[in-house]
Fold each of these.
Amino acid sequence: MKLATLVTNTDFSDFAKARPLDDAKFAALIAEVRPEWTVEAFWVCKGDFPEELSVFDGIMVTGSPASVNDAEPWIDQLQVMLRGVVTEGQPLFGACFGHQIIAKALGSQVIRNPDGWAHGLLDVIRVGDTPWSGPDQRLRLYGSHVEQVDTLPKNAKRIFESPGCPIAGFSIGKTVFTIQHHPEMSPDFFTDLVSEYASYVGPEVTKVARASLVGQTADGRVFASEVASFFEQARR
C-alpha cells in the first residue's frame, strides 16, 4: 500500500530538529508492521498540501502542539480537505491533533480538558469494537494533550476512552479511525519530551508523567498492527 502522511506538527525547535520528525515517526510506525508499504509526507502546516489524494491507499494525520481551534489558514484548508476525504470514503487515520481535527472538520467541538494536562504513559480502554480491532481491551500509549474532543461527529462510534477523556478514539464506518494518543512516539523520544515540557506543564504534571514511565513502555507495535489492519480492511 501507499499512504500519505499529513504532517501538522509545528514544533521546529532545536529539540525537535535533533530527533526524528513526524514524517519519519509515522513512516516508522507503519514500517514496523508492514515494511513493504510506502509512506509519503506532506507538511500541511507549512502549506504543502498534496495535489491529488486519490493516488494513495490511505491517509494519516499527525499530532501537533498547535490547537485545532487556532485561526490559521492551513488549519482551515486542512478541514476542507478532510471533509472531502470522508465524503469520498478514502481511509483516514488521525492521532492526537489528527484525531481532533477530523472531529472538528465533521462538526464536533474540541475543548480544553476539564482535568488539565494528560501527559505520560496513559491507559487506553477499548469501549467499542471495529472490524480491525485487536484482542487487547486495554492498551498503554503515550499521550500529551490539554484539549480533547467533546462530542462525537455524526455517525461516529466511540471506540476508546482514557482517564478524563471519554472520547479517546472513534470510528466512522470502515473508513475513519482516530486515537487521541501517540502510537508513533518511541520510549526514548517521550522520555526526552517529558523533560523538555517540564517547565511548560509544571512540576506536578511532570512528576506524574515520569512516574508513569517507570518500568513500562507503550503498546506501540500492538497499535501499529491495528492501524495497518484498518487500512487493509478499508480497501477490501
Amino acid sequence: MDIRGKVAIITGVSKGIGRATAEALLAQGMVVAGWGRTAPEGLTHERFQFFGCDVRDEVAVQEALMNTQRELGQEIHVLVNNVGLGVAGEVDGFSSDDWKLMFDTNVHGLFYCTKAVLPQMKRQQLGHIINISSIAGTTGIEKMAGYCATKFAVRGFSQSVFKEVRKDGIKVTCFYPGSTQTNFFDDIPGTEANDAMMQPEDIAATIVYALETPFNFHLVDIEMRPLQPKK
C-alpha cells in the first residue's frame, strides 16, 4: 500500500515504540493521530495531532475516533494498537487489581479500538491493523504470568480477526518483539533496559515495511528478537 497521505491512529504514542512509530510514519508522509493519556513531549508536526484517550474506557475510545474523523477526515487506513503495560509477580501473591489493569489495557483497550475502526475500514474495503503483542505472547515467563496471559490473548484475537476481515481488504498483523529498550522495564524488578536490546526505531521500521507491502501480500505474524541479548 502507498501510505503517503493515509491516516494512521497510534495508541500509547507518548514514548517507546508508539512514539518511534509515529515519527516513522510521519517521515513516510502519513497523517498521524496519536491517542493516549499523555501527549508525546516535543513531537510537533503539521501532519500529527494528539487526541487524549484512555483506551480502557470504551466511551473515550469512541469519542477519540469521532474527534479524529472530525479533524482528519472520515477515512482511517491504519490502526497501531501499541499501548500496553506489564506488572511482574508470583501468581499466589499477585494483586488482583494489577491483573485487571493489565487486561483492561492490553486486551480490552485493544478490542475497543479495533471494534471502533473496523466499520470505517470495511466501508473503504481497505485497512491495516497492527497489534503489538510480545515474545511473552508465544511462551510463558516466570513471574510474568499475568502479562503473558494478556499477550497470548492479543495473539489469539489477532489471528481470529485476520480471518474475519481479510474478505474486506483489511490486514491484521501481530508483532512479537523481544526485549526492546523502552520504559517498559522501569517497573520490572531485576531487568533494566540496555543497549543490547532492540531499539524502538527497529520495531517502527518493521511496521512501515508491513504497511507498505502490496495489497494481496499479508504478513500475519512477525517475531523479532535482539541478536546478542545482554546476559
